[in-house]
Design brief:
The complex is a heterodimer of chains A (about 110) and B (about 120). Chain A is mainly beta and about 110 residues long. Chain A has no helices and eleven strands. In chain A, the strands form two sheets. In chain A, strands 2, 4, 5, 6, 9, 10 and 11 form a seven-stranded mixed β-sheet that branches. The mean pLDDT of chain A is about 95. In chain B, the strands form two sheets. In chain B, strands 2, 4, 5, 6, 9, 10 and 11 form a seven-stranded mixed β-sheet that branches. Chain B has a four-stranded antiparallel β-sheet with strand order 1-3-8-7, with no helix packed on it. Chain B starts with a strand and ends with a strand. Chain B is mainly β and about 120 residues long. The mean pLDDT of chain B is about 95. The chains are: A mainly beta (about 110), B mainly beta (about 120).
């Protein structure tokens, strides 16, 4: 089973900031990494697939990088609507596993 | 545009079977190139993948839950269900259903999620 270590678990940002969220895999998963955004009581939304591919309809302020074991979600020019819970998912092998999640607060 | 909605009892007694249904609108669980998953998140903890059923009817379960889990397609082609037997308080969680993509025989990640339903295990 692949363990994903996501950090930080909580972060606070100011509008206009850039934030980075990390997800490290316990072994090489190529680019089989997705990133999601979820607001309380709502369905999770896929924002980045295959580590770096922005999902259509997602603002280009969001980007993903990494390959193998180290991955990063970057959000540029933070807006108030970006406040949410972000998590990573590895789909290299079953059982699928998730990072612990990051709660992003906007000041 | 596909949407998923979970439904079922919000309270289940210990040792009983938890049963949930996911209703797919705008699509069918028998449509090619998709698989249908259940995921859960206990209070204050991370997400845990439970298992899936594919459009062919094949299933795959998390080894940690395999002995207690059954995922099946409903009589309606736009529903699939989860049954988890012999539940304890540790099974208290928000349960989500989600769609995954299969391309060229390769299972890609989950692309559409439901909003989740809370299940509490308590007497």
């Amino acid at each position: 089973e692949t363990t994903l270590t996501q950090s930080p678990t909580f972060m606070s940002a100011t509008p206009g900031d850039r934030v980075n969220i990390s997800c490290k895999a316990s072994h090489d998963i190529d680019d089989d990494m997705n990133w999601y955004k979820q607001k309380p009581g709502e369905a999770a939304i896929l924002i980045i697939r295959e580590a770096t591919t922005l999902v259509p309809g997602i603002p280009p302020r969001f980007s993903g990088s990494g390959y193998g074991t180290d991955f990063t979600l970057t959000i540029n020019d933070i807006e108030s609507g970006d406040a949410a819970y972000y998590f990573c998912l590895q789909h290299d092998s079953f059982p699928y596993t998730f990072g612990q999640g990051t709660k992003l607060e906007i000041k | 545009q596909v949407q998923l909605q979970e439904s079922g009892p919000g309270l289940v007694k210990p040792s009983e079977t938890l049963s949930l249904t996911c209703t797919v609108s705008g699509g069918s669980v028998s449509s090619g190139n998709y698989f249908w998953s259940w995921i859960r998140q206990p209070p204050g903890k991370g997400l845990e993948w439970i298992g899936y059923i594919s459009y062919t009817g094949s299933t795959n379960y998390n080894p940690s839950l395999k002995s207690r889990v059954t995922i099946s397609v409903g009589t309606s082609k736009n529903q699939f269900s989860l049954k988890l037997s012999s539940v304890t308080a540790a099974d208290t969680a928000v349960y989500y259903c989600a769609r995954g993509v299969i391309q060229g025989g390769y299972y890609y990640g989950l692309d559409v999620w439901g909003q989740g339903t809370t299940v509490t295990v308590s007497s």
